Amino acid sequence: MAGSGSEEVKILGGWPSPFVMRPRIALNIKSVKYDLLEETFGSKSELLLKSNPIYKKMPVLIHGDKPICESMIIVQYIDDVWVSAGHSIIPSDPYDASIARFWATYIDDKFFPSLMGIAKSKDAEEKKAAIEQAIAAFGILEEAYQKTSKGKDFFGGEKIGYVDIAFGCYVGWIRVTEKMNGIKLFDEEKVPGLTKWAEKFCADETVKSVMPETDALMEFAKKIFGSKPPPSN
Questions:
Q1: Most buried residue among 113, 174, 218, 227 by CB atoms closer than 10 A?
Q2: What is the band of 224 on the pLDDT scale with cuts at 50, 70, 90?
Q3: What is the pLDDT of residue 42?
Q4: Burial (Cβ within 10 Å: 0-12, 13-18, ≥19) of residue 78
C-alpha cells in the first residue's frame, strides 16, 4: 500500500477541468471523503506551485502531506492506496491493465487534441479538419468499447474503470462542443455503443456530483474561446 488511507485528502483544481474530474470520480468510487480546493483559472495559487513545481498544473492530490500530480497517475494512486474500498479501477490482469493504459493514452494524445482543435480553429477549413479527426477518433473508440466492454455497460465491464474515467471526463466538453458548433459526435447511428455508454456513465452515482452542467460549462467555454459564432462551412 502506497500510504495510509486514513490521512486527510485534498484536491487542488477547478470544477470545469476534465482532468480534475478524474481523481474526483476515483475517490467517489472508493467512497473517500476529500476537500476540493478550487483554483482560479488564469492564476496559480502558491499551494499549487509548491505542490506541482515541475508542470505547475492542476490537478494535484494531497494525501496527508504528500502531493501526487498528473490526473491518471493520481487515479492509479487512489486505486492502489484504497485497494480494499469500492471496486478495482485498474484491471487485475496485467494484459487487460496494459490495454486500459493504452486506450487512456490514446484518448489524451489523439482524441483530446482533436476536440480542442475544434474550439481553437481559426477558420472553416481548420474546423472541418478538426471535426473529421474527432469523428475518426470516436469511431476508433467505438470499436475499443465494443471489444473491451464485452457486452457490458462500461469499458471496465460492469462498473466504471480506468478507461471510463479517462474518456468520461470529457463528456461535458463534448456536449458543449456539439452545442456550440452544431455538430453531433455522440451519434446513435455511427457510435451506438458510445452514445449509450455516455448516458450510463453520467447517470452513475460516482459521476453525477462532479459532472458539470452543460450550460454552465458552455458559459465557461465562451470566456476561454470567445462567444463569437464558429466559422461557417
A1: 174
A2: confident
A3: 83
A4: buried
Rounded to 5°, angle at Cα 202 from 210 and 194? 135
Please name the residue ranges forming H helices in the chain: 18-29, 46-51, 71-81, 94-106, 112-120, 124-149, 162-168, 171-181, 192-203, 205-208, 214-225
DSSP bridge pairs for 69: 60
* pLDDT averaged over every residue in the chain: 92
Q: What is the mean pLDDT of residues 202-222?
A: 94
Give percent of the chain with pLDDT exceeding 90: 87
Four-point Cα dihedral 115, 91, 96, 146, nearest 10: -50
The SS3 of residue 60 is: strand
At 38, phi and psi to the nearest 5?
-65, 125
Q: Please, are residues 22 and 69 in contact by the beta-carbon 8 Å criterion?
A: no
Chain length of the chain: 233
CA-to-CA dists, residue 145 to 14, 65, 166, angstroms: 29, 38, 13
pTM of the model: 0.92
Which DSSP symbol is given to 179?
Answer: H
Residue 227: Cβ within 10 Å count: 10
